[in-house]
Amino acid sequence: MSLNGLVTSPSGTHAAIRRHDWSWVGAVSDAPRAIAEVERLDPSPRWAVWSASDLRPLLDLGTAPRRVWDCAEVHRLRRGGVDASVQTLWCDRSGLPVSDAPVAPRSDLFDFEENADRAEPESLTTPAGYLRGDALDGSWQTQGLPNDTTRLLTWAHALLEVAEHQQAALAREQGQGSGSASRALATAASESAAALLCLELERAGLPVDRERLVELITNSAGPRPTSLEEELASRAERDAVVLRHLPGRESTDLRNPAQVRALLLAAGIEVRDTRKWTLESFREAHPVVPALLAWRTRERIATTYGWRWLDAHVGPDDRLRGRWAASDGAAGRMTAENGLHNLPAALRPAVRAAAGHRFVRADLGQIEPRVLAAVSGDRALAQATAFPDLYAPVASRLGVDRSVAKVAVLAAMYGQRSGTAGEALAGLRRAYPVAMALLEDAAERGARGEPVRTFGGRLVRTARPGEEGAIVAPPVAAGRGRFARNAVIQGSAAELFKAWAATIRATTGDLGAEIVLCLHDEVLVHVPVEAASECAARVDAALADAARRWLGSEDVRFVADVSVIERWSEAKA
DNA sequence: CGGTGAACGTA
DNA sequence: CGTACGTTCACCGA
User: Taking the C1' atom of C7, which residue's CA lies nearest?
Assistant: First the structure.
């Protein structure tokens, strides 16, 4: 897999390409032609970028390279954590300690004296070998543009060196461990594809039915206020519905947990905290309890998904937009802002395909136990994945009800201690020793503060740097154990999901389809109505393709529920 | 003013 | 409740 370095200038006006035997630099408007030229000569090029967001100027022109190598994402994959600055990547490639590295210049006077380790004006690196500080914010590369493009080309060359170092290191490191080199490289590719997908998700946005959204917000938050007075009146009205149940306590601030606790005490209800889960069992005790719980639901929409949210994040084209991150979570899950990942189910009827379009909605079934079968290589559990309902064969093997088997499997993966899963857990250990050993090994490593790795090789730290292997207090150790146990499954599932999403992106684009939402195990594809059924078929096929490449075999079956819908709420639960 | 915990939405 | 995330709020301490 040959890599090409692709950089853009900070202003987005220029771009440069660096290959071993060929290079190009020029106006970004000419970059699509240069990219096409390379892709004509090289059948499967992979474009290395410092970060997929560098491709924004190209996406603005309506083009994007098909396959990318996102150096920041690959670095996070190999090293864990979130620090993937350009200087950090360079230090990794150069074997330099990151602690001594120059930082990007700030616009204050101190910077002029800061670095004793000054670079020659035309050198990208300092005498000690670090990237110069004024290259980190792009100002060094920009000097001389548009006439002098040599620095941008130098920048592209540095990028290519980093990318090739990463590629070689991944092949080496994984080749030695349990994973294969090809798996590590495949993961780097699909994590990079996810980073590009995140850019596209930001641009596309999630189509909504504005009228319906307005209606649903009005139901919870009241009509759109036109003044601060109206906003406060609307808020007081919501509060009054609860407070009228306890005359004399109208001054209670329902947003203050301590005051709510006092309010409940006046109703004869004593609770440790006022969480929903705690209050749920007191629903019958006093009418103020269900009123309070209903208030919380309305208040959530009023404050977080109300008028302000609508104005700030739903564009004039009726698309909800937010920033996406490809591997922001500790275990490498995708994250999204502005409610894209936690939109209340009550608002889902307002997520509707645009005129002439449909959603192809798909979600992975029983993804976590299937991923456990895959990453552990447990033959017996892998055989269970052949069934559409995995818990059925597990239940029969354990000689328990399906519901018991399900709770036990989930308890094993989450490290649950309470509840009645104990006996079935012992049965699981006998029936699926390989899978259970993987979970327990991860938990033990986590408890010791050691890092764990996902199936695709993502390093997940369980302790702060320098604290690895330290003796920690038992409650902390137990928490880390559960975290590590779950991170291996959750993180590996995230990798499979991203490989699936990347395959969907690659195989449905020609239908005019675009992915508009990724939600951990669920994907929404927006597609012209006439192509919807074909798109649904390809989404289903993409799972088998992605799973085979991800796992390197067909020993574990993954299943998706795929449907063509107009509104997200039509999805079956 | 920034940081923290409570609370709750999603998977 | 078992894990993860993002957002808003009240509170605390500087």
Answer: A304
- Name the pLDDT band for A419 (thresholds 50, 70, 90): low
Kindly report which amino acid residue has its CA closest to the C1' atom of nucleotide C11.
A256
Model confidence at A477, pLDDT cuts 50, 70, 90, reads: confident
Burial class (CB within 10 angstroms; exposed 0-12, middle 13-18, buried 19+) of A79: middle
| Cis bond upstream, residue A45 (ω within 30) | no
In sequence order, the β-bridge partners of residue A358 are A527
Who among residues 332-391 of A has its Cβ near strand C, under 7 Å? 333, 335-339, 341-342
Whole-number distance in Å between A563 CA and C14 C1'? 55
Which residue in this structure is represented by tokens 């790795």?
A453
Residue predicted with more confidence, A467 or A350: A350
Is the domain spanning A324-367+495-570 CATH 3.40.640.10? The answer is no
Which residues of the protein have their beta carbon within 7 Å of strand B?
Answer: A 257, 260, 273-277, 279, 293, 296-297, 300, 341-346, 363, 519-522
For domain A369-493, the question of CATH label 1.10.150.20 is answered with yes
* A272 CB contact with strand C at below 7 Å: no
| pLDDT (tens digit per residue) in A549-569 | 999 999 999 999 999 999 999
Per-residue pLDDT tens digits for A144-168: 888 888 999 999 999 999 999 999 9
Q: What angle do CA A483, A383, A430 make, to 5 degrees?
A: 60
Asked if the peptide bond before residue A344 counts as cis, ω within 30 degrees of 0, the response is: no
Cβ–Cβ under 8 Å, residues A249 and A265: no
One CATH from 3.30.420, 3.40.50, 1.25.40, 3.30.450 for A3-176: 3.30.420
